[in-house]
Amino acid sequence: MNRAALAHRLTLHVLTDREWSRGRDTVTVARAALEGGATVIQLRDKLASTRELIEQGQALRELTRAYNALLIVNDRVDVAVAVDADGAHVGQDDMPAPLARQILGPQRILGVSAGTLDEALGAIKDGADYLGVGPIFATRGKLDAGPAIGAKLISTLAARFPTPLVAIGGLTATNAPEIIRAGAAGIAVITAVVAADDITAATRELLTTIQAAKQSPQAHP
Amino acid sequence: MNRAALAHRLTLHVLTDREWSRGRDTVTVARAALEGGATVIQLRDKLASTRELIEQGQALRELTRAYNALLIVNDRVDVAVAVDADGAHVGQDDMPAPLARQILGPQRILGVSAGTLDEALGAIKDGADYLGVGPIFATRGKLDAGPAIGAKLISTLAARFPTPLVAIGGLTATNAPEIIRAGAAGIAVITAVVAADDITAATRELLTTIQAAKQSPQAHP
Ligand code: NI
After folding, report:
1. What is the pLDDT of residues B98-145, one digit of tens each?
2. What residue numbers of A does the annotated binding site cover?
3. Under CATH, which architecture does the A3-215 domain have?
4. What is the ipTM of this complex?
5. Which metal ions or organic cofactors does this protein require, according to UniProt (chains A, B) (predicted)?
6. Which end of chain A has fewer CB within 10 Å, C or N?
């Protein structure tokens, strides 16, 4: 996939999170998000056994194929390969990107988290296909996230590098447009979708807002 | 490695366990066990981040090479590949063996846990290089282990299959000989070593006992 195609497919990234899903299971949540237009499902479940992750991943693999969405696995590169996901996402506490790339192979998508310019430069040098940049705003979904960094790192990186940027952390339909206009290819959400009363409607509203921002004249090309 | 060579190298398997190590770090515990003659170190840490596992695995990789011992990673096939371990061990809550094999490749060692004859038959069919059979006796090291099965499954499997068997669960220098004589290629221990006052002495006593049992006339060939 070339960068423009990947950037397009990264528009709206929904991370699963069993703790914030109000008792709804991961597959149910993902299906509702896909129905609302999520372009990426990222499987993330720090409580599950490997066996459970594989089972969830296999179910999400079928579902994402049916909706022509991407499946990315958080942290667990082995699970990504085992369920034939489109890629894996690693944070600074996960496997170093060069080792993850070795296991994923050259074709699968490798996303890397960056909360500072230094981390972003390292991830780009390590061959990340996209960067997960954040936390942009204060967030309740990832309690171990660093300090909020705002839109500044997005605009700095977008001006200097072609690597697609996915903004994460406290994003909503209200604040997503400024981040897209700062140069993000897409946004990633957890609670804004998985904790919503109506997951499909919440996803659709986010997607519509992002698409409108991408088409506004100030948008980064 | 052929089966006889592998069986020999599986003689004394020490699983790391941070919770039972009385404040001593994993590398310190492993070095002391290797000094006492452990032939396998199995990295197992359900609390560590992937990054920490990689760091521990890299340190254990150097150490096990220096002592000509095997390094096996529990559950995390990705970590096994990333640190160039000799293999991985998967339980019934971990990745299914055929998927693990796909990521490990044909050369690395794949160990699979079996607590029943059915699980053992499945693991052999899936191409396990060795079976971890247990829990043999009641154990405090793995609180999620199934009911104790005694030596019977070891002797049944040893009589029917050439796959090396590593007995696990409640094993000590006192009860290890009968399990070796029942046909186990080796034994695996957690607390008997990692919780010992003198890790090196405890390991050496186990090794000596196992080696004596292997040479006794009743031993499985
Ligand atoms: Ni020897």
Report:
1. 999 999 999 999 999 999 999 999 999 999 999 999 999 987 666 566
2. 42-46, 74-75, 94, 113, 142, 170, 190-191
3. Alpha-Beta Barrel (3.20)
4. 0.86
5. Mg(2+)
6. C
